[in-house]
Amino acid sequence: MNETELLARARPGRNDPCWCGSGQKYKKCHLDEDSRGAAPDAPARPHRRPLRPGVVSPRRAVPATIPRPDYASSGRPKAQGRDVKTPEELVRLRRACRAAARVLRVTGEAVRAGVTTDALDEFAHAETLRLGGYPSPLNYRGYPKSLCTSVNEVICHGIPDSRPLEDGDIVNLDVTVYLDGMHGDCSATFLVGQVDGEGRRLVQVARECLAKGIAAVRPGRPISDIGRAIESHASRHGYGVVRSYCGHGIGETFHTTIQIPHHYDPSLRRTMEKGMTFTVEPMITEGTWQDLLWDDGWTAVTADGKRSAQFEHTLAVTDDGAEILTLEE
Q1: DSSP line for 197-240
Q2: What's this model's pTM, rounded to 2 decimal places?
Q3: φ and ψ at 166, to 5 degrees?
Q4: Going edge to edge, which strands form the sheet with 300-302?
Q5: 79, 81, 249, 313 from 258: Cα distances, Å
Q6: What domains appear along the chain, each with residue ranges and CATH number?
Q7: Comparing 16-20, 123-127, 303-307, which segment has the lowest mean pLDDT?
Q8: How open is the CA angle 53-191-153, to the nearest 5 degrees?
Protein backbone atom coordinates (compact mmCIF):
# COMPACT_ATOMS: atom_id res chain seq x y z
CA MET A 1 0.00 0.00 0.00
CA ASN A 2 1.44 3.40 -0.96
CA GLU A 3 1.49 6.52 1.24
CA THR A 4 -1.56 8.10 -0.43
CA GLU A 5 -3.67 4.95 0.07
CA LEU A 6 -2.55 4.69 3.70
CA LEU A 7 -3.44 8.33 4.38
CA ALA A 8 -6.88 7.89 2.83
CA ARG A 9 -7.51 4.74 4.81
CA ALA A 10 -6.46 6.23 8.14
CA ARG A 11 -8.20 9.57 7.70
CA PRO A 12 -10.67 10.67 10.39
CA GLY A 13 -14.15 11.89 9.46
CA ARG A 14 -14.63 15.52 8.44
CA ASN A 15 -16.02 16.47 11.87
CA ASP A 16 -13.67 14.28 13.91
CA PRO A 17 -10.65 15.73 15.74
CA CYS A 18 -7.69 16.17 13.39
CA TRP A 19 -4.99 13.51 13.56
CA CYS A 20 -2.33 16.17 14.24
CA GLY A 21 -3.52 16.83 17.80
CA SER A 22 -4.46 20.48 17.18
CA GLY A 23 -7.92 20.02 18.72
CA GLN A 24 -9.59 21.39 15.57
CA LYS A 25 -12.01 19.47 13.39
CA TYR A 26 -10.29 17.57 10.58
CA LYS A 27 -12.13 19.58 7.88
CA LYS A 28 -10.74 22.85 9.30
CA CYS A 29 -7.21 21.57 9.77
CA HIS A 30 -5.52 18.99 7.49
CA LEU A 31 -8.32 17.78 5.21
CA ASP A 32 -7.32 19.94 2.24
CA GLU A 33 -3.62 19.13 2.57
CA ASP A 34 -4.26 15.40 2.97
CA SER A 35 -6.47 15.44 -0.12
CA ARG A 36 -3.49 16.70 -2.12
CA GLY A 37 -1.19 14.02 -0.65
CA ALA A 38 0.94 13.64 2.49
CA ALA A 39 0.68 16.57 4.90
CA PRO A 40 3.70 18.86 4.45
CA ASP A 41 4.17 19.24 8.20
CA ALA A 42 4.25 15.48 8.77
CA PRO A 43 7.96 14.66 8.64
CA ALA A 44 9.19 11.25 7.58
CA ARG A 45 9.84 9.00 10.54
CA PRO A 46 13.53 9.19 11.47
CA HIS A 47 15.52 6.15 12.49
CA ARG A 48 14.46 5.40 16.05
CA ARG A 49 16.69 3.65 18.53
CA PRO A 50 15.14 0.81 20.53
CA LEU A 51 14.12 1.90 24.00
CA ARG A 52 16.44 0.93 26.84
CA PRO A 53 15.71 1.09 30.59
CA GLY A 54 17.11 4.03 32.52
CA VAL A 55 17.74 4.58 36.22
CA VAL A 56 14.67 4.23 38.45
CA SER A 57 14.60 6.60 41.42
CA PRO A 58 13.49 5.53 44.93
CA ARG A 59 9.80 5.10 45.68
CA ARG A 60 8.06 8.38 46.50
CA ALA A 61 6.60 8.85 49.98
CA VAL A 62 2.90 9.18 50.79
CA PRO A 63 1.89 11.06 53.98
CA ALA A 64 0.33 8.93 56.70
CA THR A 65 -2.82 11.09 56.54
CA ILE A 66 -3.68 9.82 53.03
CA PRO A 67 -6.07 6.82 53.07
CA ARG A 68 -4.52 3.94 51.19
CA PRO A 69 -5.56 0.62 49.61
CA ASP A 70 -4.93 -2.72 51.31
CA TYR A 71 -1.75 -3.47 49.32
CA ALA A 72 0.02 -0.16 49.99
CA SER A 73 2.40 -1.69 52.55
CA SER A 74 2.51 -5.36 51.58
CA GLY A 75 2.22 -5.06 47.81
CA ARG A 76 -0.38 -7.85 47.86
CA PRO A 77 -4.01 -6.94 47.11
CA LYS A 78 -6.51 -8.99 49.11
CA ALA A 79 -10.15 -8.21 48.32
CA GLN A 80 -11.71 -8.89 44.91
CA GLY A 81 -14.53 -6.35 45.05
CA ARG A 82 -17.99 -6.52 43.48
CA ASP A 83 -18.58 -6.06 39.77
CA VAL A 84 -21.92 -4.19 40.03
CA LYS A 85 -21.96 -1.01 42.09
CA THR A 86 -24.69 0.53 44.23
CA PRO A 87 -25.71 4.17 43.60
CA GLU A 88 -23.69 5.25 46.67
CA GLU A 89 -20.63 3.41 45.42
CA LEU A 90 -20.98 5.05 42.02
CA VAL A 91 -20.96 8.48 43.66
CA ARG A 92 -17.62 7.70 45.30
CA LEU A 93 -16.25 6.09 42.15
CA ARG A 94 -17.09 9.19 40.13
CA ARG A 95 -15.04 11.30 42.54
CA ALA A 96 -12.02 9.01 42.20
CA CYS A 97 -12.37 8.98 38.42
CA ARG A 98 -12.63 12.76 38.15
CA ALA A 99 -9.47 13.04 40.23
CA ALA A 100 -7.67 10.59 37.92
CA ALA A 101 -8.78 12.60 34.88
CA ARG A 102 -7.36 15.76 36.42
CA VAL A 103 -4.03 14.10 37.27
CA LEU A 104 -3.78 12.80 33.70
CA ARG A 105 -4.43 16.25 32.25
CA VAL A 106 -1.99 18.04 34.56
CA THR A 107 0.74 15.47 33.95
CA GLY A 108 0.10 15.47 30.21
CA GLU A 109 0.61 19.23 30.11
CA ALA A 110 4.19 18.62 31.27
CA VAL A 111 5.01 16.30 28.35
CA ARG A 112 7.72 17.75 26.12
CA ALA A 113 11.12 16.82 24.75
CA GLY A 114 13.80 16.78 27.44
CA VAL A 115 11.48 15.91 30.34
CA THR A 116 12.25 12.57 31.97
CA THR A 117 9.49 10.08 32.60
CA ASP A 118 10.62 10.15 36.25
CA ALA A 119 9.75 13.86 36.33
CA LEU A 120 6.31 13.04 34.95
CA ASP A 121 5.91 10.50 37.75
CA GLU A 122 6.72 13.26 40.23
CA PHE A 123 4.04 15.52 38.67
CA ALA A 124 1.42 12.77 38.87
CA HIS A 125 2.40 11.79 42.42
CA ALA A 126 2.26 15.37 43.72
CA GLU A 127 -1.09 16.15 42.08
CA THR A 128 -2.64 12.93 43.38
CA LEU A 129 -1.56 13.76 46.93
CA ARG A 130 -2.81 17.35 46.55
CA LEU A 131 -6.26 15.96 45.73
CA GLY A 132 -6.16 13.75 48.83
CA GLY A 133 -5.71 10.53 46.86
CA TYR A 134 -3.24 7.67 46.81
CA PRO A 135 -1.50 6.81 43.50
CA SER A 136 -2.92 3.31 42.93
CA PRO A 137 0.05 1.85 40.99
CA LEU A 138 2.46 2.57 43.87
CA ASN A 139 3.49 -0.83 45.31
CA TYR A 140 0.63 -2.65 43.59
CA ARG A 141 2.20 -6.13 43.38
CA GLY A 142 5.50 -4.36 43.95
CA TYR A 143 5.28 -1.78 41.14
CA PRO A 144 7.81 0.89 42.14
CA LYS A 145 6.26 4.15 40.88
CA SER A 146 3.04 6.19 40.92
CA LEU A 147 2.51 6.34 37.15
CA CYS A 148 3.02 4.10 34.11
CA THR A 149 4.88 5.78 31.23
CA SER A 150 4.93 3.73 28.03
CA VAL A 151 7.12 5.22 25.29
CA ASN A 152 7.07 4.21 21.60
CA GLU A 153 7.25 0.38 21.43
CA VAL A 154 6.26 -0.03 25.09
CA ILE A 155 2.70 -1.37 25.16
CA CYS A 156 1.96 -0.81 28.85
CA HIS A 157 3.37 -0.74 32.40
CA GLY A 158 6.50 1.20 31.48
CA ILE A 159 8.36 2.24 34.65
CA PRO A 160 9.27 5.96 34.84
CA ASP A 161 13.03 6.44 34.83
CA SER A 162 15.86 8.80 33.95
CA ARG A 163 15.36 8.70 30.17
CA PRO A 164 14.38 12.13 28.76
CA LEU A 165 11.58 12.15 26.21
CA GLU A 166 12.87 12.83 22.71
CA ASP A 167 11.37 14.86 19.87
CA GLY A 168 9.19 12.48 17.85
CA ASP A 169 8.36 10.11 20.73
CA ILE A 170 4.86 9.09 21.65
CA VAL A 171 4.19 8.35 25.32
CA ASN A 172 1.20 6.84 27.09
CA LEU A 173 0.53 8.07 30.62
CA ASP A 174 -1.57 5.65 32.68
CA VAL A 175 -3.03 7.22 35.84
CA THR A 176 -5.02 5.52 38.59
CA VAL A 177 -6.11 7.31 41.77
CA TYR A 178 -7.45 5.75 44.96
CA LEU A 179 -9.86 8.20 46.59
CA ASP A 180 -12.95 7.77 48.81
CA GLY A 181 -12.31 4.03 48.88
CA MET A 182 -12.43 3.70 45.07
CA HIS A 183 -9.94 3.45 42.20
CA GLY A 184 -10.36 5.63 39.09
CA ASP A 185 -8.27 4.63 36.04
CA CYS A 186 -7.54 6.41 32.74
CA SER A 187 -4.76 6.89 30.21
CA ALA A 188 -3.89 8.78 27.04
CA THR A 189 -1.07 8.83 24.51
CA PHE A 190 0.70 12.15 24.01
CA LEU A 191 2.81 13.44 21.11
CA VAL A 192 6.29 14.70 21.97
CA GLY A 193 7.30 17.53 19.64
CA GLN A 194 7.21 16.79 15.89
CA VAL A 195 5.86 13.27 15.55
CA ASP A 196 5.85 11.78 12.06
CA GLY A 197 2.57 11.27 10.19
CA GLU A 198 2.55 7.50 10.74
CA GLY A 199 2.85 7.98 14.49
CA ARG A 200 0.10 10.59 14.59
CA ARG A 201 -2.23 8.35 12.62
CA LEU A 202 -1.54 5.48 15.02
CA VAL A 203 -2.43 7.70 17.98
CA GLN A 204 -5.58 8.98 16.26
CA VAL A 205 -6.82 5.48 15.39
CA ALA A 206 -6.09 4.29 18.95
CA ARG A 207 -8.29 7.13 20.23
CA GLU A 208 -11.00 6.12 17.77
CA CYS A 209 -10.73 2.48 18.90
CA LEU A 210 -11.52 3.53 22.46
CA ALA A 211 -14.59 5.43 21.22
CA LYS A 212 -15.72 2.38 19.22
CA GLY A 213 -15.35 0.18 22.28
CA ILE A 214 -17.32 2.56 24.48
CA ALA A 215 -20.10 2.80 21.88
CA ALA A 216 -20.47 -1.00 21.99
CA VAL A 217 -21.33 -1.03 25.72
CA ARG A 218 -24.96 -2.05 26.25
CA PRO A 219 -26.65 -3.90 29.14
CA GLY A 220 -27.64 -7.40 28.14
CA ARG A 221 -25.02 -7.62 25.39
CA PRO A 222 -21.93 -9.86 25.66
CA ILE A 223 -18.66 -8.25 26.71
CA SER A 224 -17.16 -9.62 23.48
CA ASP A 225 -19.04 -6.87 21.57
CA ILE A 226 -16.45 -4.40 22.86
CA GLY A 227 -13.49 -6.30 21.44
CA ARG A 228 -15.33 -6.94 18.17
CA ALA A 229 -15.85 -3.19 17.63
CA ILE A 230 -12.27 -2.30 18.53
CA GLU A 231 -10.59 -5.03 16.48
CA SER A 232 -12.75 -4.28 13.46
CA HIS A 233 -11.75 -0.60 13.47
CA ALA A 234 -8.06 -1.27 14.09
CA SER A 235 -7.89 -3.94 11.38
CA ARG A 236 -9.56 -1.62 8.89
CA HIS A 237 -6.58 0.71 9.31
CA GLY A 238 -3.98 -2.05 9.19
CA TYR A 239 -3.17 -2.05 12.92
CA GLY A 240 -2.85 -4.83 15.49
CA VAL A 241 -4.68 -5.18 18.82
CA VAL A 242 -2.71 -6.45 21.83
CA ARG A 243 -4.20 -9.62 23.35
CA SER A 244 -2.04 -10.26 26.43
CA TYR A 245 -3.44 -7.25 28.31
CA CYS A 246 -7.05 -6.18 28.62
CA GLY A 247 -9.51 -3.92 30.40
CA HIS A 248 -10.70 -4.89 33.87
CA GLY A 249 -13.39 -4.45 36.45
CA ILE A 250 -12.64 -1.69 38.93
CA GLY A 251 -14.02 -0.05 42.06
CA GLU A 252 -13.08 -0.77 45.66
CA THR A 253 -10.29 -2.89 44.24
CA PHE A 254 -7.90 -1.98 41.44
CA HIS A 255 -8.92 -5.08 39.46
CA THR A 256 -12.09 -7.15 39.90
CA THR A 257 -12.88 -10.43 38.15
CA ILE A 258 -14.24 -8.80 34.96
CA GLN A 259 -11.89 -8.91 31.98
CA ILE A 260 -12.46 -6.82 28.84
CA PRO A 261 -10.48 -8.18 25.86
CA HIS A 262 -9.89 -5.67 23.07
CA HIS A 263 -9.96 -8.32 20.34
CA TYR A 264 -12.99 -10.38 19.42
CA ASP A 265 -13.31 -13.52 21.52
CA PRO A 266 -16.59 -15.29 20.69
CA SER A 267 -16.16 -17.64 23.66
CA LEU A 268 -16.62 -14.70 26.05
CA ARG A 269 -20.34 -14.90 26.77
CA ARG A 270 -20.65 -12.91 29.99
CA THR A 271 -23.14 -10.10 29.52
CA MET A 272 -22.91 -6.51 30.66
CA GLU A 273 -25.22 -5.39 33.49
CA LYS A 274 -26.42 -1.97 34.60
CA GLY A 275 -24.12 -0.69 37.36
CA MET A 276 -21.17 -2.81 36.20
CA THR A 277 -17.94 -0.79 36.17
CA PHE A 278 -14.81 -1.54 34.16
CA THR A 279 -12.10 -0.02 32.01
CA VAL A 280 -11.78 -0.09 28.24
CA GLU A 281 -8.16 0.52 27.24
CA PRO A 282 -7.23 -0.80 23.78
CA MET A 283 -3.51 -1.07 22.96
CA ILE A 284 -3.10 -0.59 19.21
CA THR A 285 0.11 -1.52 17.40
CA GLU A 286 1.76 -0.57 14.09
CA GLY A 287 2.78 -4.17 13.54
CA THR A 288 2.29 -7.42 15.40
CA TRP A 289 -0.02 -7.67 18.39
CA GLN A 290 2.42 -10.04 20.09
CA ASP A 291 4.46 -8.81 23.04
CA LEU A 292 7.62 -9.41 25.04
CA LEU A 293 8.37 -8.62 28.68
CA TRP A 294 11.49 -6.87 29.95
CA ASP A 295 13.50 -8.36 32.79
CA ASP A 296 11.94 -5.85 35.22
CA GLY A 297 8.79 -8.00 35.11
CA TRP A 298 6.58 -5.04 34.16
CA THR A 299 7.53 -3.36 30.89
CA ALA A 300 5.63 -4.98 27.99
CA VAL A 301 6.93 -4.14 24.49
CA THR A 302 5.88 -5.09 20.98
CA ALA A 303 7.66 -8.21 19.72
CA ASP A 304 8.69 -6.46 16.49
CA GLY A 305 9.79 -3.17 18.10
CA LYS A 306 7.09 -1.12 16.34
CA ARG A 307 5.09 1.51 18.18
CA SER A 308 1.96 1.06 20.29
CA ALA A 309 -0.64 3.64 21.38
CA GLN A 310 -3.39 3.45 24.00
CA PHE A 311 -6.31 5.40 25.43
CA GLU A 312 -8.42 4.40 28.43
CA HIS A 313 -11.55 5.37 30.35
CA THR A 314 -13.35 3.90 33.35
CA LEU A 315 -17.01 3.26 32.50
CA ALA A 316 -20.28 2.45 34.23
CA VAL A 317 -22.95 0.51 32.33
CA THR A 318 -26.23 2.48 32.21
CA ASP A 319 -29.76 1.65 31.04
CA ASP A 320 -28.84 2.20 27.41
CA GLY A 321 -25.06 2.47 27.12
CA ALA A 322 -22.06 3.69 29.09
CA GLU A 323 -21.28 6.60 31.38
CA ILE A 324 -17.66 7.75 31.03
CA LEU A 325 -16.54 8.33 34.61
CA THR A 326 -12.97 9.55 33.99
CA LEU A 327 -13.89 13.06 32.87
CA GLU A 328 -13.20 16.28 34.77
CA GLU A 329 -16.22 18.30 35.85
Answers
A1: HHHHHHHHHHHHHHHHHHHT--TTSBTHHHHHHHHHHHHHTT-E
A2: 0.86
A3: -110, 150
A4: 154-156, 300-302, 291-293
A5: 14, 10, 5, 15
A6: 84-324 (3.90.230.10)
A7: 16-20
A8: 35
